[in-house]
Amino acid sequence: DAKTTQPNSMESNEEEPVHLPCNHSTISGTDYIHWYRQLPSQGPEYVIHGLTSNVNNRMASLAIAEDRKSSTLILHRATLRDAAVYYCILRDLDSNYQLIWGAGTKLIIKP
Amino acid sequence: DAMVIQNPRYQVTQFGKPVTLSCSQTLNHNVMYWYQQKSSQAPKLLFHYYDKDFNNEADTPDNFQSRRPNTSFCFLDIRSPGLGDAAMYLCATSRAGGPATNEKLFFGSGTQLSVL
Fold it and tell me: Rounded CA gap, B44 and B6, in Å?
């Protein structure tokens, strides 16, 4: 089964870039890599997703390793509002609807 | 504007007393999901509906049931809540097949269930 591994927590200073890593060494060739974040007392919200190429949107960038066994979510200028748990997610091969969630990385932003 | 709305935000029930959590959506999405999230853990999928087709996860206890009377509404029924069922319950929607088809999930703010 696909599985993701993330650090439990990371700290960053406000206004600095943040790189959140995720390992997914058992990823299949057709699995998309999704990132969601969960702010305190809120439901998760979509951040970004990708398959092979690096992706950019207004929230973040996603850098995917050439072998697809790891990826990095990049927040270019972290603000206090970016403090959240960030989940790296893959799709389960056996079910079109089941998401394989990583344990999440709690991002702490220091003012 | 809220697109996936969960009510109530906080729910307290007694051990063994049935409880229903509700979810509504204004997105007209085909798929609705119910997740259970315990403290400091990732959300765990309980079941989902693709339109009217119900799909239960293999490890979801029989104590948990769901109803989807129409596209907009979905309910989570816990028939006999135990102390271990205290958790945040999250409703989510997606337009079609979810991440397998590249569709985003949209989550509500959740209902925090306490069992006394």
Answer: 17
